[in-house]
Amino acid sequence: MLSAIWAIPAAGGLLVLAAAGRWPAKRLALAVAVCVFALSLALPWAAGPEGLSSLAQAGPLWAYGIRYSVGLDGLSLVLVWLTAFLTVVSLLSAWKQELSAGFWASFLFLEAACLGVFLVRDLFFFYIFWEAVLVPMFFIIGLWGSENRRHAAMKFFLFTFFGSVFLLLGILALVTMHHSATGLWTWDMAVLRGPSSGRAAVVVFLALVVGFGVKIPLFPLHTWLPDAHTEAPAAGSIMLAGVLLKLGVYGLLRVALPAFPEVSWSLLPWLGLIAAINMIYGALCSMAQGDLKRLVAYSSVAHLGFCVMGILSRTPEGLAGGSLQLLNHGLSTGALFLLVGCLYERGHKRGLSDFGGLFAKAPWFTFFFGVAVFASIGLPGLNGFVGEFMSLAGMARVLPILAIAGVVGVTLAAGYALPAYQAVFWADPGPGSVSAKVTELDWREKSLMWTLTLLMLWIGLFPGTLLSLLDSSLRGLLL
Amino acid sequence: MAQFLAQTSLSGLAPELALAALVCATLMAGLPASGRRYWKLIGPLGALCAFALALTTVPAVEAPGLIRVDGLSIGWQLLIFLAAVPFALLLRGEDEVPTALMLGSLLGMGLLASAGNLLMLFIGLEFMSLPAYLLVARGARRAPAREAAMKYFFAGGTGGSLFLFGLALYYAAGRTLAFSASTGPMAEAGLALMGVGALFKVGAFPFHFWLPDVYESADPELAGFLSTSMKAAAVLLLMRVAALSPHSGFVRCLPWVGGVTALFGALLALRQQRLQRLLAYSSISHAGNVILGVGAWAALGAVPGEASSIYYYLAAYLFMSNGAFLFLRQTGLRERCEVTGLSRRDAPGALLFAVLLLALGGIPPTAGFLAKLLIFWEAIKAAAYGPVILAGAAALASLGYYLGLVRQMYLDEPLPAQAAAPARPGDRFGSIILAACAAPAAVLGLAPWLIGVFSRLLSP
């Protein structure tokens, strides 16, 4: 059952490629994506009363403890939902464009790889899926992105592969350390433990952090992100921001922190500092951008800082809030990239000064953009507030000074998001404005945005269900 | 004499005997001018026949001392003979000479693999190298091929003489030619010289200088043969030398030699504008990884069954390298700029090449990925952290050209002149072999259970 969740989109991608020219690729791809989303929603029912863990499966032992195994808990489930949902959203966001079958198939391959990362419980296969994410994304950016796409695609691949080398060496060292301590070869994430102290443990933990940190992205490993997000097609940006960045935090939660609980605790001030830099530096960079897409990209750097800060605190509220923030960021930034994509599709410009006064022409556009902006700032009542508040509350109990830095970050968020919103929708259009070309959202875009808006509202008002799901799966990380 | 014969069944030498018979038969009979296509099958049949015979060989000690067939011999023979098949199938030339040379070289490799003492090792080494010089010299582009053959001959000869000199010193120290450990400065020096001889053959930095010229000027399929069969045999030579005394100074340096070679090859490949030369430097880089693996393997005690990661690497490289060189043969591409926009002119070819490049770069789930993972893992087990970081940096740098080529083929716009040039259709036969190399390269990374199989193969 769980393997089917990633196998169906992979097979679907092959089918889309094979049937190119005969069947309409995009309808087929959408059908597969919707099917996967429906299946992912059905997972809790499939699990039945015994809980999600009853879905776990393991294959035969191969060699040196390598064994294909999949499992599910609250954290994985939430991220699987996010991935499956955002794939549907991003496919629909590109619906009107005439694109070859390769485009649609790439998204299915990307979905399969991301779902694989969230589902497997064996580090060997985790790494395979982790790397497999890069290839479809490379082509999505490089083939269907905007002007500077080739450079951005290479940069994306090489930067993330740089992290992957650290990750691979870290994983191998972890497996070897575990073997020399226990005499047991295993690649099982739930079992692997590194030494609790010592220089080797610190080095290996840091290698893992660098590996995951490139994807998150942690300062100063973030420089690939603005280029990749900006040059990717809108649908690709949604997946990049919505899902790919989550892989890094997921890796921290699933691999690095459980394997090195003590080391990560002793390094908390430094890692927390990096998370704080992420928030403030990301926000400041975002303020300085004149390109809407770049602005949203830098805001992702800031938002992921909250996630990392929350989970580093290792308090119940911090862990649950930080991981809920993963979902929140996926929804609100996904929505922002979707809307910026709509703007670009209409006006072929992305600059803040290229628009203005859109409220009069497109009230729905304005409304939805406003919701996404406020969710992203963390307005109470919308989803972002819950996650950010809980992350900071968690950190406040451990290292209050970092929580204060986080509050500064929240304030700065208003400083970049609101002026941008104002410039595009409320200010008078400037001389070279392309506002005249911008039309109201059509029913397809509106229904996508309604879904996203309702989800953001739901999480903002009733976060209990998701929080208890996440909380139950993260208890092992509590101090 | 009677006793000698009674002890000797020579069954362990079956592949070599078959090859020797075929070489003699080919040379004596010549290939009849008529019905050439039929006779061209002798080469591939010989390689496959040797492969099959090696498969049925059981470990044994033959002709006391001279021949010793162990797990490594059998495993490496399989690898070497299989790697020669694409080259054998595509042999150029109208006469019997290339066939005989190729089979003769394989015979030398087989002897090297099942050598039971140091002298046989040397004989095997020379036997496999001499035909290779001639094969290079017979390349399609005459002038550069001859020049490359001369370089190859002198470099190979230097390697061979260093090995022989080291052998003499080692013999002087221990008074034996058997694979046994000796101590003392003279034995250390002898071991180091033999090791350097082997490193010459593998093409390790700083003994790599001949390799780019040779691989670039040889016919592409011959370069594939040299980079797989020949290199695998040279690696086995290095392993035999390293296993003599796993804790000697020379062997302790091996991981560093490997790491530096990997990085050096990758960095030099970055700037290459000619594809075959690029692949040659990439082959240096891959050899570096293998040497790192050999060093780690020796440091961990040089147990034959534990060599499965080296073996896996060579097996994966067999498909990747042969495939990549075959692609050059099929498309006739020489310059790097010629691949720009290839996906639009020759979609299947570009796809195959992209798969091979990603495999060479070590992207999951390709064979190259698992190969690198196993080698890095072996090095970490042996606590060779510095070299493994160098190798990791090499893996990253190598993506600059592997992925750069994929980018050129898929993302970049072709120049108008290139877009107009029709893709040169390769012969269908070669394309099938190319696809047969690319397919395992693409998926073998998903087969970690092969490690167990290899491990059993190497220590029966």
Main attributes?
heterodimer; A: 479 residues; mainly alpha; two-stranded antiparallel ribbon; 21 helices; 2% strand; globular; B: 460 residues; two-stranded antiparallel sheet
State which percent range the strand residues of chain B make up: under 5%
Q: Strand portion of chain A, in percent?
A: under 5%
Number of helices of chain A: 21
Question: Order of helices and strands of chain A, N to C?
Answer: HHHEEHHHHHHHHHHHHHHHHHH
Strand arrangement across the biggest beta sheet of chain A:
1-2
Mean pLDDT of chain A: 87
Please summarize the sheet with the most strands of chain B. Answer: 2 strands, antiparallel
Low-confidence stretches of chain B: none
How far from one another are the termini of chain A? 33 Å
Structural class of chain B: mainly alpha
User: Residue-averaged pLDDT of chain B, rounded?
Assistant: 87
Low-confidence stretches of chain A: none
Biggest interface: chains and residue counts? A-B, 33 and 31 residues
* Rg of chain A, Cα atoms, Å: 21 Å
Strand order, biggest sheet of chain B? 1-2
In terms of quaternary structure, what is this? heterodimer
* Proportion of residues in helical segments of chain A: over 70%
Polypeptide structure, described:
The complex is a heterodimer of chains A (479) and B (460). With 479 residues, chain A is mainly α. Chain A has a domain of 194 residues. Chain A has a two-stranded antiparallel ribbon. In chain A, α10 packs across α14 and α17 runs antiparallel to α19. The longest helix of chain A has 34 residues. The mean pLDDT of chain A is 87. In chain B, α13 runs parallel beside α17. Chain B has a two-stranded antiparallel ribbon with strand order 1-2. The two termini of chain B are 31 Å apart. Chain B is mainly α and 460 residues long. In chain B, a hairpin with a 4-residue loop joins β1 and β2. The relative contact order of chain B is 0.09. Chain B has a domain of 213 residues. The interface between A and B is medium-sized, with 33 and 31 residues.
